[in-house]
Structures are given as C-alpha cells and as structure tokens.
Design brief:
Largest interface: A-B, 38 and 19 residues
Strand content of chain B: 15-25%
Number of strands of chain B: 3
Structural class of chain A: alpha+beta
Distance between the termini of chain A: 61 Å
Structural class of chain B: alpha/beta
Number of strands of chain A: 23
Oligomer: heterodimer
Radius of gyration of chain A: 28 Å
Shape of chain A: elongated
C-alpha cells in the first residue's frame, strides 16, 4: 500500500497541484484512466452520470485530459493530467486502467482494478445502474511497449480528434510555418460558427497541413474561409442543419493553372491533390476550428460525401460563355474562389438530344426532384456543372448562358394541382390547381459553370440548401504574403 | 513533437447551465418560436401548461430559423424573462 505522492500534476482548469494535496483528508478516491481505453471511458461516463466524488487522473497531456473529461461528461471534480512518462502511475504501480486507488489521510487503503460497478458503489456510496456492471481494464500507458514513430503519430492525430475520419498530415510547427510563409499567424479572419473558434491564419494553416495541402494552395484556402465567413453565406445555418448540405468551391482565373487544379476529366473527384486537399482544408476549418463536427454540433441526419470537401476549377477555355467570376463582376485575370452551399452532385446522362431545347430540358428536369419532388419553387441556388460536349452544343447554336438559364426556368413548370402532395410549398397550396408553378423562384437561382472531360455527355446538378437563405460568395485570391 | 492545434480551445470550454428555478408560480417565461412550420402549435400547448402552473408567458419569433437570434432579441428576452422555452418543429 502506497503513500500519496509528492509529484505535482497539472489540473485541466490550469492550476498545478501536488497529488498529495488533492487526496489529503479522510477519504479520497483517485481514478486512473486514459483515453484509448474503452473501459476507462465507460467508468468515467458512469461515475460522471452519478455525480461521484472522485479525483480523475488521466494518463494524457492537459489538452488530452480536458478532452477526455468533456467526452465523458465529467464535471465539478478535479481532473489531473499525467503526461508521459506517467511517473505517478509508475510510483503507485498502477498497471491497469481504470484503477481506483483509495486514500485515507494520504495512505492507500484499498484499490479496485478494472470496472466493477458494485465495488465502486461500495467505495463511493452512489448508485451506478448502467451496463455493463463489470469490464476488464486496459494496460496503463507506462506498461505498453513503445510503438514505431510514424504509425503512432498518425494514431495520435485521430485521438486528438484532428481528422475527418481519414488519416491526416500531422501539423508540425515546421509544416505550419511553411504553409504560413511570411503571413502573420495571429491575424484572424473572424470567428467560425457554430462554436465561434477564432480563425487565425495559424489555425487555418494547421487545417491546410492536416488536409494535405501544399503551401502554394494556401491562398485559395484563405479566400475560401473568407467566403464562408461572409454573413450572407450563413455558415452557421449550414453547419448545424439536419440537411446533408456541404460547400462547393469553384475556382476561376490564373490560380487554376498556377497550382494545378483540375477542371477536366473527373473534375468532381477524386484524383487531383489540389482539388481534394483545398476542399478538405475548408471542411477541417469548419469542423475543427468552427466546432461543426458530425454528431456534435453538425446535426446532419445523413451527412454526405460532399462533406469531405469539394473544390473544382471551371474549364474557362472550353466554355462558350464568359467565366463564372467575370459574370460575377471580376476581371478575367483575377483569381477567385466562389463558395456555394450545395447538395451532393446528381449526374445527368444526356446522349440523345439533337437540339439545345432538348438538352436544356433534360438538364432542368433532372433538377425537378432536387430538394424535394413536390417543393416548387425552390428559392436557393442550384449549380449545374455542364460538361464540355453539352457546352459545345449550346456554343454551336450561339445560346448565351442567359438563354440557357431562361430555357431551363421556363421548361421546368408544373400545374399546382400536380404538386399538392406531401412536402409542397405554401405557394402551391394557395394556388388554383391549374396555376403554373416553376421549379425555381427566378432564373437567377440557376447557376451554370463548364467543367469535365472532353468526351462524354454527363453533366451534373448540385441541388440547393433550400430555406437556408444562403448566397454564393466570391472572394479574390490574394497571392501576396 | 510540437504540433499546431486547429482548435480554439476557448471555444470548446463547456458553459455551465443556468440555475433552474424550483417553482414556476409567478415566473415570466419567454416562448421563442424559431420560425419553422408548426412551432407555434407546440408553443400554444406549452403555454397552456405553463399558465396552469401559474407562470406568465411572453411570445417571441426569430426572424429566420436558419440563423441565430438577433442580439437585440436575446437581450430583450434576457431582460424581461426568467426562463425561455425555444420551439423547434419540423
């Protein structure tokens, strides 16, 4: 039986404390745990739910201990951090977690190893009704053989929660500094909803490193964050909604060639590092810095593959129309990124039409069931990605983008009576049965860009985040450091 | 190894919930409809129950369900009510 140690540990609330002082007094129960041990997590959850009076000793650094406390709902009791080399566990010969070490006036009088609800009830005088009642513990960290460096580091990223579920590049100081270049690390672009984490350039750079970006991509990531922080984008609503909505980024101008963004074959992914990692970096800023992690503040019922991130470049050279950013008021030689709140892409096969009217009708009617089949009109942006072969058909007959947009709008119309089913709009319910209702409130809700491989007649539509009141936002990409 | 955290730890600290009153008699309760369809029906029923228990109620509506309530609305509710019930219907 051991005597309480004189070792000093950090508490997660910031104070450094002698262990002996924390367990002084008539009776104190110190519960040793670590975050990779499911039995430890089980024990903390049950003890927290019962409001048990214990001292938690986590074999973690301070941030890890705080995370474990938050994850398990521990409140109102001391949580001590015991980073490697875990001297306290060694000194008290704690070889298994969880272990409850009971002190009476600073001297150990009892010990419970593993999870044993009945034993804890006896020790603490609380009811612990949860299941299971018993569960074997895990090895204390100091007893585990050291793992190889590389694998351990990648696993560490997952345990910190610095991931979207896929492995990440560890954001070492050296890598983050390379991403930042000479930019001011503490410059903030604002607070990212819903948790309102401060988007300093340093944190954005950390996300860009995690995502796998090269430093050359960083200006695009910064502009994308600026775009979603525009109040008109409504990043808050998008982050927390039950919709499966994500963000589509469209890059225009010289930036595309400068950093090797794909606007051609397979543009919607996967396969090109710049596209994949820029889209992913923005998502990591939203989920990690902004706190919109799925299942926590992100309440999306289904989620979406789009939520891993999407960044595409427009094939301006293939397009019959002026580039998307020029249409939005920028100079052709300016590089921009446009953020559009969107649903996942729906592909549209159209190999048979012989007239632009037929083609526009197919594109438009493909979107008729987006959002919800009887919800007409939709009042947010739909993004059509028109493939080069389809674009060429419009080019041959000289159809402007305005004309294509108007034709889609005019074509996709149904009498209100056919729409009075299930999720229909108040406008439909209030209309006479023969009243024509369009799928969009105005043609301007239909956005078109050109991208994709030169062969094949597959375009796509990204449905809207209806009801979010979100607008596409374009920001200039600044190359200066 | 030194890593740069993507987290803003300040934004991740839990906020303790406000004290709950033991009795609703005489309390002023704000009923906030977030402005989704049929939230008012839910609040109508809640309002009946609260009044039966001796509470005074005030009704508020957020301008848009997908955005946070404006600060002026939050301040107004905080200044005039003891409790708030927020209705999310769908």
């Amino acid at each position: 039986m051991a005597v309480a140690s004189d070792l000093t540990l950090d508490r997660v609330d910031g104070a450094a404390t002698r262990f002996a002082d924390v367990v002084a007094g008539v009776r104190a129960v110190a519960v040793f745990v670590h975050a990779d041990c499911p039995t430890s997590v089980l024990a903390l959850r049950q003890l927290a739910a019962a409001g048990a009076d214990v001292v938690v000793v986590a074999e973690e650094d301070v941030l890890g201990a705080a995370r474990l406390g938050r994850k398990t709902g521990v409140r109102g009791v001391p949580v001590l951090a015991q980073p490697a080399p875990h001297d306290l566990s060694r000194e008290l010969d704690v070889t298994t977690v969880p272990s409850a070490v009971v002190f009476d006036n600073g001297v150990e009088v009892d010990r419970v190893v593993g999870w044993d609800a009945a034993a804890y009830e006896r020790l603490l005088g609380v009811a612990l009704p949860g299941e299971p009642r018993t569960k074997p513990g895990c090895g204390s960290r100091w007893t585990e053989p050291e793992e190889s460096g590389g694998l351990d580091e990648l696993e560490d990223m997952f345990s910190r929660g610095w991931s979207d579920g896929l492995p990440v590049v560890p954001p070492t100081r050296e890598r983050v500094d390379a991403m930042l270049g000479s930019r001011d690390p503490q410059r903030s672009l604002g607070r990212i909803p819903p948790a309102h984490g401060e988007a300093t350039l340093e944190r954005i750079a950390a996300c860009a490193v995690l995502a796998g970006c090269r430093p050359a991509y960083f200006p695009v990531v910064v502009a994308a964050v600026e775009a979603v922080l525009d109040p008109a984008f409504n990043a808050h609503g998008l982050a927390v909604t039950t919709q499966p909505a994500g963000v589509a980024l469209v890059v225009n101008g010289p930036a595309r060639d400068r950093i090797g963004l794909n606007s051609g074959m397979g543009v919607l992914g996967p396969g090109t590092r710049a596209n994949a990692t820029i889209g992913r970096a923005l998502r990591l800023v939203l989920t990690l810095t902004g706190g919109a992690a799925p299942g926590t503040l992100d309440r999306s019922t289904l989620g979406s593959p789009l939520k891993f991130g999407l960044c595409i470049a427009e094939a301006e050279e293939t397009s019959p129309w002026e580039p998307f950013h020029v249409e939005r008021g920028y100079d052709a030689n300016t590089s921009t990124v446009t953020a559009i709140a969107a649903d996942a892409p729906l592909s549209i096969s159209e190999h048979r039409s012989r007239t632009p009217e037929e083609l526009a009708a197919t594109l438009g009617w493909a979107a008729a069931s987006t959002w919800s089949p009887f919800w007409w009109p939709m009042d947010d942006t739909s993004l059509f990605v028109v493939c080069p072969e389809h674009a060429a058909m419009f080019r041959e007959v000289g159809w402007s983008k305005v004309r294509v947009r108007q034709h889609i709008y005019d074509e996709v119309v149904r009498p209100a009576g056919e729409l009075k089913r299930g999720e229909a709009t108040p406008q439909v319910w209030a209309s006479a049965d023969d009243e024509p209702i369009h799928k969009w409130t105005t043609p301007e809700k239909i956005e078109l860009i050109v991208a994709g491989g030169e062969a094949g007649r597959f375009s796509a539509v990204l449905g809207p985040c209806d009801g979010m009141g979100t607008k596409p936002i374009t920001k200039e990409i600044s190359w200066s450091t | 190894m030194e890593y740069v955290s993507p987290f803003d730890e300040r934004a991740r600290e839990p906020i303790a919930p406000a004290q709950r009153p033991q009795d609703l008699r005489g309390a002023t309760i704000a009923l906030l409809d977030i402005n989704k369809a049929r939230g008012n029906e839910f609040l109508d029923r809640i309002e009946e129950h609260l009044r039966e228990r001796g509470a005074t109620t005030q009704r508020y509506v957020k301008p848009a369900f997908s955005r946070p309530a404006p600060e002026e609305l939050v301040d107004e509710i905080a200044a005039s009510a003891d409790l708030v019930v927020e209705a999310l219907a769908d």
